[in-house]
Amino acid sequence: MKTAALRVVIALFLCPAFGLAQNIVSGTITDQATASPIPGVNVVVKNTNSGAVSDFDGKFTLSAAKGDVLVFSYVGYSTKEVVYQGQTSLNVQMSEDTALLEEVVVVGYGTARKQDLTGAVDLVTSKDFNQGPQLSAGALIAGKIPGVVVTGSSGAPGEGQNILIRGLGTLQGAGAASPLIVVDGVPMGGGVGGERNSLNLINPSDIESFTVLKDASATAIYGARAAGGIIMITTKKGKGREFQYQLSSSVTSNRPLNQVEVLSADQFRALINEIGTVADVARLGDQNTDWQGLIYQNAVGTDNTFSAAGTATLLPGSANVDVPLRFSLGNTNFDGILLGDSFNRTTASLNMTPSFLNETLRFQFSLKGMYNENKFANRGAISSAIDFDPTQPVFNGSQYQGYTSYVDDFGVQLNLAPINPLALLNFNDDTSEVRRFLGSVKVDYDLPFLNGLTGTINLAYDGSNGHGRNITSAFMPNTDTTFNGSFYSYMSDNTSKLFEGYLTYNNDIAEGHSLNFVAGHSYQTILFEGSDYDSEEEEDGQADFRTIDRSREVLLSYFGRLNYNLNNKFLLTASMRADASSKLNPDDQWGFFPAVALAYNLVNFGEGKGLIDEFKVRLGYGEVGNVASLSGRYDYLTRYEGSNSSGAYQFGNTFYQTYRPEPNNPELRWEVSETANFGLDFSMLNRRLSGSLNVYRKLTRDLIASSSVDPFTNFSNRISKNIGNIENKGVELNLNLGLVSTDDTSLNLNLNGSYNKNEVSQLPYVQEVGGIAGGVGNNIQLHTEGEAPFSFYVFEQVYDSNNRPIEGLFVDRNGDNTINGDDRYIAGDPYADLQFGINLNFTHKRWDFALVSRASLGNEAYDNVASSKAYARRATDREILTNLHVDYLQTGFQEITEFNLLSDHYIQDASFYKIDNITLGYRLGNIFPNLDARVYGSMQNVATFTDYSGLDPEILGGIDNNFYPRPQSFVFGLNLDF
Amino acid sequence: MKNYLYTTLLAGIALLFVACHDDLNQSPIDPDSFTEENVFANVTEAKSALAKVYASLALTGQQGPAGDPDIADIDEGFSQYTRMLFNLNELTTDHAVVAWGDPGLPDLHGMYWSSSNDFTQAMYFRLAQVVSFSNSFISNAAALSDPEVANFIAEARFIRAYAYSVLMDLFGNVPIVTVVTADLPQQNSRAEIFEFVETELLAIENLLPSSNEYGRVDQMAAKALLSRIYLNSEVWTGVPRYDACVNYSAQVMNSSYSLHDNYAELFMADNNSNGAQNEFIFTANFDGLNSQTYGGTTFLVHAAVGGSMDPADYGINGGWFGNRTTKNLVEKFTLDTAALNAALGTQSDWGLVGSATTNGWNGPDMEMYQTGTNTYSLYASLGAGELKFRFDEDWGNNYGDDGANGSLEPGGANIAIAPGNYFITLDLNTLTYSILSAGDKRGIFHTDGQNLEIEEIPAFGDGYAVGKFTNLDSNGMAGSDTGGNFVDTDLALIRLPEIMLNYAEASLRGGGGSTSTAVDAVNAIRTRGYGNTSGNITSGQLTLDFILDERSRELYWEGLRRTDLIRFGKFTTGSYLWPFKGDVPEGTSVDSKYNLFPLPTNALLSNPNLSQNDGYN
Q1: What is the distance between the alpha carbons of residues B110 and B591, in angstroms, rounded to a whole number?
Q2: Does the pLDDT at position B418 exceed 60?
Q3: Would you state the pLDDT for residue A101?
Q4: Structural domain that includes position B347
């Protein structure tokens, strides 16, 4: 890079002297590996407008002067620069841009060659993304990176994924452990009401690559926000002289795959005849209604993206400015399989990367916009369809537009009775629109007085706005006879402003010693404003039927990093970040996050001779914080909260708003994680086998949890408090195998696997978590020292000789002759011990085939659907007939009790192997001049292999209830390049 | 040019750095969030802070009915103070059973709770929080020098003393904390808490206003609470203080508080204005629109409705199929007609005949008892129908009432009657009669579809349902929440009859006072309960056991039963049993450790200064 810059400078100086001596040069451009000509290559005389494009035989002709630098560029190939020596013929070989270790990887506040990396960093580029229309960015890398677990939150279209890197390092659940996502240098955050996923701003087809920084030596440059790891997303930029256009279209058919198993109408009839009173039997209908079948549908989705990338010339003539740019416009329109659910998103993005002053002043403008319309189907229908009596017809002439309802003598909906699932879907209209705009400008300026010193300023504005309304029709079954429909609306705004300024010094201080130094400052402020309106509260005469919420947060940081490279053999990285957050007490606001890492290239890039091509060992240590775990923005302050108008208190004839002093903890500190990482990167057998191995140990201290406090000493029994430690230990292995590589056939296999163990290593006392449905206030999980966080804490069921659980009989584990809370034990946790990804890519001539699959082993789940819906009393309780989960046929349980709910009968091994995606594509080639086309068919959610008996073993957090099922999808798509 | 750019850049960055650092000190910008300066700016604002101190005994958080709870680790509706008081002091006794299997709830009636019980824990947290809220109010409000604020402070001290009196009753040995501090407090003994509560109440009995607006306490509240703690002093401190109880009870009885004339109206939606308020000394106030909670009377009404009960009859949209009662409470209202009749005099030949009587028009007749010359009386349980008076089962000598004017005519018209228990008198001297409703109207049970006996606790049909609390007002109209979810009815935490019964009991236990005052007080309560004097007692009938039963009849489901049973030595012992006491169908004694609740495990863990109550771990 430095030599290139030098050549530019030389060229600039030489230009005036030799500028008149123009020659005509021509030649052929060929592929280095196959020797076949490459058509369409851009050839440009650097820093001029003159250039050419190679023809179908790879031939080009242009005029140049001796000493000019000719730049050859073509998508998928490494750009090549040649200094023209005055010859008339110039043949050029170009090589494909696949050499793994030459890849430039985006790291925080800069880039690095992969061979210079010292931390655990994984790169996934667009050619390896999961195919088919992936509506959300996170889905692109599911199963691709060891130690990175991507779990879709449900089967609803447009919903996001939870990403967990290297296990769970917080007591607050997977949400608080999410990685920081940085898009083109801008940390993402926020989220507004009415959106399904805050990453929807990014059209997945605009993404060039993901860089995942896993260990603290790599992430510490992001300090207090890095505990969950960092995902750096780089979007595609304009390149090449000529504009390239791409149109991608696909159509997807989604179908519901499976249902919660409930008693059939006949089974239910038999049950009521057996256990019901005469009155109960009389309530039975004569239909066979498959309620779940009625609420789900086959749903169609379309996805279209157009993009243009190239270089535009602004201000024609001598003052011209070349602006490499890329523009894209995309629309995704998906219906959900739950009746009435839909997601419609339009995204636009524009990236411009002009440079000035001989490329010493470089701009990167980035504009991204999104407009998203959602219809949210009422998910209450999922549970109601399980509960609703299958012997009833859909319509029975009720006053609720005929929808079958449980009513009293006056035809009014009964209290606590299930509502007809179709009425729930059809009488509820819940819609939202979300708008988001992200604009950023990054300016790099190579400061003229010191070679290698660059100043950078990065400014970003990220504004989201959500509007939504939930309208319930007056026909919705309701116990209130005066119910005349309801209208609820809300608005929320999230605005983040970012300023960053830093200096980078990059130089070879002596032969074999090179140095890279970054130091800078970052300031971010995030403002949230929301309001809502409730028509029913207004009708009730409540004063605050409109409410307003507002809060602000400021993050301020200084950071610095030093990279030292000795002969490309020995690499050192040291970094330090100081972060302050307004969420903490001013006396205690600053956190300091250091990191250091060493690497040694045993076999360096380019030195390997076939057997071992590259081999590097790495060792790193770093500290990072977790600002997400500080959930409140003002928890350290003594505040008073006013009551709303339905929480007022009466003195005399007046209702007074009340002021409550809020629980506070002035001593809150950051959670701090210390990670030690040992890693190997290698490639061998002419790079046919490459991979990496990482072993890590991460200790998170001062975990923040909502923690018990002596209630006489605060204003609540719980405050946010730093109370314990978690240790995550694991091993990750990533292997890429080029099994076949011939002229027209290639077969690549990626195998990745990880082992991770989460353990609460210190906690003064047990914390119960994991609220479940059925009854009120039951928790199924706990945090306790020596066990995984969120371990299932249950009673041990006793079974009879027919393996039928005996109701109410549990093992007296502590032998004190009574069964009480002390007899509960730990039966696993929802986080997998072992994760595997198996990904296959096969191409043969014009055909391509890809398979993506994942395995998760050692994760348990609690089937809350079965545990809360499989009791005989429930079938006839409250003079209403309610259907039961089929588990009743096995257990025959009568009562829903605390003990039954917490029985280990409902804890199951939810290990699974899933084939996520199979794609088969065919390149039509140049069916028209300058038009390349590819068609493909893809299937998603192909197959799941599991012993888990519930709907889906892949449930974030492990408590399976009211889950929106993931559909199976068939995709047909067409890509056109022209 | 380049240097200029560079200089500008550097200067700009430097400026930004300085500006930025100040931004780290953010303060709340939400319109619902306040600081101490706002809240204690003046009397009006301070009153809203005082409202929270009161509201913490009625509501569960800042968002009615739920959504922003005061305390964690328990369903917000469950965490409401009076709901937990019901669970700990009524559900643990013969007064109540509940169908639900929520964690910790079946343990209460079954009497096998442990230190991790959700309800004992949440109650400890709730009361400690009331103390913290009070302490914060008392110290912050002291800065405002206003006579009205002085009242506020005395009221907050009352609430704190009340919270400690309940802590003393339930948990015994808890820390006394009077200022807001993060320092972990030391544990105090039950006797020390008694002394603290007594001292506080004595200190504020004259600082409190002599009268106050509805919902706020006055001097009589302090005296009434003193009456309560002195009555229980022997249990709580080992030292009997019945004389002090008599003294303070008498002061309350002689105050302007007076019995309302209708028992049922005490538990109705308009009980803040229908006259019931005249006997309410300290209340938790609820409103279907403005003060919503899933506890309080919303719980008491909804949870008691189920089975064949029509929710509309209680002014609500649906029952929760939860609470019922045991036969022990029902039997306390049973009219023992045989015993009552035997006490009247000797059986005569005059009797009742008719379709309303046991044997219909054909007899044999229900014979009356002679109470004087030509006067006869009878306690009788009659069905719907008609009756006449007849001599010796012979139509030759019979009386009826022409014109239904109360005077009898030979062979007169049949007298129509509704089903019920009656006290019937016949005076042949004046040829008049009276048919008085006999029996106690306070036993408000729903029996249709309910079994008196309890076979299974989770079955709502086992055990009589209780219709004492309702969201209908005294005109039969439902409360203000048209949706029928939230109830308007206020709940008296202390009302006059308790103090009257305290007087009678303390007097009988040797506290002095006047027996006739005691009998008059009890008869005043019973006259209101019966609707007439038929239930009145003589001084000979006024025994301690009678008073315990009378407290049951008057105060059931109002949160005092466990305390009463403990004072009479009947809570854990085998001397008094009820269905499923000790978790067996016929009832059994349990360990005496259950006279106190355990300190919650979480409280012990978060404060190592505390040690557990005897018998618990």
Answers
A1: 12
A2: yes
A3: 42
A4: 337-437
Average pLDDT over residues B301-308: 93
Residue B59 lies in a domain: yes
Inter-chain contact A659–B49, Cβ cutoff 8 Å?
yes
Interface of B with A in 33-62 (CB under 8 A): 33-36, 38-39, 45, 47-49, 51-52, 54-55, 58-59, 61-62
What integer is the mean pLDDT of A709-715?
Answer: 92
Cα–Cα distance measured from residue B302 to residue B304, given in angstroms and rounded to the nearest whole number: 5
Give the integer Cα–Cα distance in Å for B470 and B148.
Answer: 35
Q: Is B474 helix (H, G, I), strand (E, B) or coil?
A: coil
Cβ–Cβ below 8 Å for A638 and B52? no
Q: Which of B472, B473, B287, B216 has its CA nearest to residue A645? A: B287
Query: Rounded to a whole number, what is the distance in Å from the CA of A590 to chain B's nearest CA?
Result: 10
| Chain B CB contacts of A455 below 8 Å | 6, 9
Cis upstream peptide for B364 (omega within 30°): yes
Q: What is the mean pLDDT of chain A?
A: 87
CB contact under 8 A, B605 and A764: yes
Burial class (CB in 10 A: 0-12, 13-18, 19+), A397: exposed
- Token reading at A319: 């003052």
pTM of the model: 0.82
Domain count, chain B: 2
In this complex, do B133 and A633 lie within 8 Å of one another by their Cβ atoms? no
CATH assignment at residue B61: 1.25.40.390
Q: Is B356 on the interface with A (CB under 8 A)?
A: no
Domain end, chosen from B437, B463, B478, is at B437
* B16 part of contact set with chain A, CB < 8 Å: yes
What does the DSSP 8-state code read for residue B482?
A: T
Q: Are residues B37 and B176 in the same domain?
A: yes
Token look-up 């299932």 returns A792
Last residue of a domain, one of B420, B437, B454: B437
Are B23 and A525 in contact (CB < 8 Å)? Answer: yes
pLDDT at A9: 40
Higher pLDDT, A80 or A187: A187
Query: Which residues in B lie closer than 8 A to residue A900 (C-beta atoms)?
Result: 101
Q: Are residues B148 and B8 in the same domain?
A: yes
Q: How long is chain B?
A: 617
Give which of B560, B570, B549, B588 is closest to B110, Cα–Cα: B588
Burial of B215 (0-12, 13-18, 19+ CB in 10 A): buried
pLDDT at B2: 54
CB contact under 8 A, B62 and A711: no
What pLDDT score was predicted for residue B3?
A: 62
Counted across chains A and B, CB pairs separated by less than 8 A come out at 307
- One-letter amino acid of B101: G
Residue A660, number of CB atoms within 10 A of its CB: 29
Residue A11, pLDDT score: 40
Instruction: Say how far apart CA A274 and CA B411 lie, in whole Å.
Output: 58
What length is written for chain A? 978
Compute the CA torsion angle A958, A960, A965, A971 (nearest 10 deg).
Answer: 10
Q: Is B386 within the bounds of a domain?
A: yes
pLDDT of A7 strictly over 60: no
Residue A800, number of CB atoms within 10 A of its CB: 9
pLDDT digits (tens, 9 = 90+) for A116-141: 888 888 888 888 888 777 888 888 88
Q: What is the CATH number of the domain that holds B406?
A: 2.60.40.3620
Residue type, A951: L
The answer to whether residue B273 sits within a structural domain is no
Distance of CA A978 to CAs A37, A244, A245, A923, Å? 19, 6, 5, 14
Of A582, A639, A656, the CB nearest to B34: A639
- Beta-carbon separation of A715 and B24 below 8 A: no
Question: Does A821 reach chain B within 8 Å, measured CB to CB?
Answer: yes
Assess if residue B490 is contained within a domain: no
CB B563 within 8 A of CB B232: yes
